[in-house]
Amino acid sequence: MRRRFTRRQRRVAAMIAAGRCRLCGGPLPPSFHVDHRQPFIRHGPTILANADAVCGTCNLSKGSNTMLKLRPWQREAHDQAITWLTETRADRHFLINAAPGAGKTLATCAIAATLFERDEIDRVVVIAPRTEVVSQWAADFARVTGRHMNKATGADRELHALGLDVCATWSAVAGLQDAFQAICRDKRVLVVCDEHHHAAVRAAWGDGADNAFTDARYVIVLTGTPIRSDGAQSVWLAYDDCGAIDHPAEGTYTLTYGEAVDLGYCRPVTFHRHEGRFTVDLEDGEAVRVSSREKAAITGKLARIPALQRALNFYRLACVPQYEPGGRVPLATGYQASMVEWASAKLSDLRQRMPLAGGLVIAPSIEMAEYFVELIEGLEGERPMIVHSQMPGAENRIAAFRNTERRWIVSVAMISEGVDIRRLRVLVYLPHALTELAFRQAIGRVVRTDGPSDDTRAYVVMPSFERLEAYARRVEEEMSADARRDTPVRTKRCIVCSEENSLGASECSACGHEFPPRVGRFNACPDCGALNLAGAQVCQHCGTGLGHAFTLTLDEALRTGAIVRGMEIDEDAVRAGERIAPRVREMVLNSGDTALVRVTQLLPEESWHRLRAIFEDTA
After folding, report:
1. Which pLDDT tens digit goes with each residue over 268-282?
2. Strand, coil or helix: what is 310?
3. Which structural domains are found in the chain, ordered by start?
4. CA distance linking residue 246 with residue 252, whole number of Å
5. Residue-wise pLDDT tens digits, 107-133
């Protein structure tokens, strides 16, 4: 068999790698190498399935060893795991608690490769949180071990037919318990539990994991967030009286986020607490002011409506979409627009150092995600990519964004734990789930280092909300004083040759590449009409404060729930009523019953779901 890859194979391999070295993650130079994953001298075929596009430095340091050059912490974790599992043998579980983006996947693949070499295991089963993460596991596992890993779903009843090594989502485990149990009883299996907090004791996934893998030879537990939002304990690990994981130190390797930043494995993060002062116009000309520091003071008959106080909560108001007159175009001067403007300017700054840097918006609902898409397109002129659970091909859209130059991607709970898009650096955080677990997972999406030359920071734009600020303070406390310091960018880097240039340069001094012009956005002062850069706090002409003050009507404020004709209706009921309304209205009109038509005219559609529930309870 020939040893060298053809010119066409080289081009395809570089396209598969998205122009980046598959070992260090840095950009591929023009004279890049294409190397065999399984070495040629070990009978590795010269085909694309066994090809890696790599930079010359990585390839020459790799030699014929299938083991990647590990980071120091990965080597330490590897050696400690091998000692604990194969020599000490005090327990079959090894825990790696490392910050998101530090490289847990590659460290674990290296451990698996060594266990195969020592004839300690026959198969590997990986359980990961999402389909996208499962795909990443399969690719990294093949790269490190040279073994193919098949992806299993709940519909795969005969796992033996899938091949030696298998990866699946946590949700698939519950439907495949018998199949996984049979494999663990028949072979010496290493089970890898990625994002272990999913497997709560007594929860469906936890029971599935406990039952299916009781007979596994070894278990490696991976987590970057060893807490659950519901406070439940996870399977396989002991907990102390305070709820903290109580696993032997010799069987645990820990790397905090602060340590990962200091070692250069993760980028430092800066939190922008985005303030807003809302004025909500109530009935009879009354108005209520709400901010993160000022709760709503409601008087009169409205004070007797409990849902109103809940609706006039600062975070709920921050999640209310605001539109231009007519109700279709997102308001360019609204609260969310001010968040995006700050984030957009920061993303443009970051692209001076990291030309392909991208931004992520985490929205609380599909409705708000679509709103952000329209808002960002209106502000920047480029339409963001969007992914959510009701959209087919979400995994392909995430992969497409990873390998393009697009600035923004908007998501509803789709780009979270384990999803690796290394060019993400700015996060607009307006989620539905306000847990510390979700918060830390979201931060993990924007702090992954993009190669050894990456010197950027990550930025999180979030409402100045007490609970989120508490989470942010705990993250900041993990970082050293130097890492917390946000220093201004002084030069910009050429995307073609990586040469450093002055910020004002219009083209690269080394290769002549033309830098895209920096386009600023301006807002008019409400008093004098003078233009000021977006985000300015004070008008540069007349001194008028340009703080973030916003006005909402009562109807807009209550859109996260509803009070309709004196009835208090929660948000889920509102949306359910609106969802069934078209069908109910059609059926009533087709019935020809004038009494029913009058009733539907009197009864607001937001309450129809409640009416259906009443009928079902009395049926």
Report:
1. 999 999 888 888 887
2. helix
3. 7-62 (3.40.1800.10), 72-255 (3.40.50.10810), 269-274+325-488 (3.40.50.300), 277-317+550-558 (no CATH), 564-618 (no CATH)
4. 10
5. 999 999 999 989 999 999 998 877 778
